[in-house]
Design brief:
- This protein is mainly beta.
- About 5% of the residues lie in helices and about 30% in strands.
- The protein has two helices and 20 strands.
- The strands form five sheets. Strands 1, 2, 4, 6, 11 and 13 form a six-stranded antiparallel beta sheet that branches. Strands 3-5-12-7-8 form a five-stranded antiparallel beta sheet, with no helix packed on it.
- It is elongated.
- It comes from Mesonia algae.
């Protein structure tokens, strides 16, 4: 009877373990969601990046590697354009914000993919992914980690991709972890068809509550920790765009709104067949730099105090918000 009960319990816990392997496997296995970097589904890549490095070891902020207490491997520019396996390390809890010449849109299936530079399918350093359509309000993809939290995964430890969901770094180098904007709840502060910013936040994989980070279900996320080297934390190699907003407005819209001259020096003219509420100008990093209100139907806008460069001009009308590229000479 004791043996029989032990067998029952063993089968029960084995079933639980199998049930907990809920998600897609590594890139080399059947059923994976990994997307190769040379896939034709990618139509664009990130064009700008800002990085805020984290510590090489958040549990010991005085620890240095290569002369710095912060991660220092790679240049931020390594995250721009197509992936090359030359990444930038974020460090423990470090962040990167990437922007795009043309915003990401919510299309059919996955909309973009994030690439890390892991040398294997089991040494996985993870990151949260957030998106924004205004550069101010960010929304995090719901994530889930089923990795056990009783024993710390060591600095050179291994993870199983089938335990991971909506966490960047799930796949090895040259294989992107894809994200679907439909996974995000509807929110008036997020325009899923106009994603201008993607933020990566390194997962601190410690299971010490002092330093731990948590998935959307409140579970600690256990990943290799500590990694007290200048390449500490998530190593960002790039973001590939699958679905993109068209900045070429439709024929009907062309007849309703136009801006000129473009490129421009000191002034631009906006012509619209519908009432304009406001016009906003954003930097390529999504920062709102100028707002025009109380406009006539054909306003002339003074841009003389803007530095030379490329901007995104957003015309907010009663019927539709339209986005244009603007070049200030």
């Amino acid at each position: 009877m004791i043996v029989k009960n032990l067998l029952v319990f063993a089968c029960f816990f084995h079933s639980i373990a199998l049930l907990s392997q809920s998600y897609a496997p590594a890139a080399s296995q059947t059923g994976t969601t990994a997307i190769a970097s040379n896939s034709s589904v990618f139509i664009d890549w990130a064009s700008n990046v800002e990085v805020e490095r984290g510590f090489v070891n958040i549990a010991d902020p005085s620890q240095e590697d290569q002369g710095s207490v912060y991660a220092s491997y790679g240049d931020p520019s390594n995250a721009i354009g197509m992936v090359t396996n030359s990444a930038v390390s974020l460090g423990d809890g470090g962040e990167a914000i990437l922007t795009f010449d043309t915003p990401i849109a919510n299309g059919s299936g996955f909309d973009f993919a994030v690439f890390e530079n892991s040398f294997s399918e089991t040494f996985l350093e993870l990151a949260f992914v957030e998106v924004s359509s205004d550069g101010v309000n960010y929304f995090r993809f719901p994530s889930h980690s089923e990795t056990q939290t009783q024993t710390q995964v060591g600095g050179f430890g291994n993870l199983d991709a089938t335990y991971l969901y909506n966490l960047a770094g799930k796949y090895a180098a040259f294989f992107g972890t894809p994200f679907d904007l439909d996974d995000l709840a509807t929110n008036p502060l997020l325009d899923k068809n106009n994603i201008t910013h993607v933020k990566l936040i390194d997962v601190v994989g410690s299971i010490d509550p002092i330093y731990a980070t948590y998935d959307s279900q409140g579970n600690m996320i256990n990943d290799p920790f500590p990694t007290p080297f200048y390449s500490s934390g998530f190593d960002l190699d790039g973001i590939g765009v699958i679905n993109q907003q068209s900045l070429i407005v439709g024929e009907e819209e062309k007849h309703r709104i136009s801006i000129y001259p473009n490129p421009a020096n000191n002034f631009i003219k906006v012509e619209s067949e519908v009432e304009i509420n406001t016009v906003e100008i954003y930097s390529t990093l999504g920062k709102l730099v100028k707002t025009y209100e109380n406009l006539s139907q054909y306003p002339t806008l003074d841009i003389s105090n803007l530095p030379k460069g490329m901007y995104m001009l957003k015309v907010n009308s009663a019927k539709k918000n339209s986005l244009f590229k603007l070049i200030k000479q």
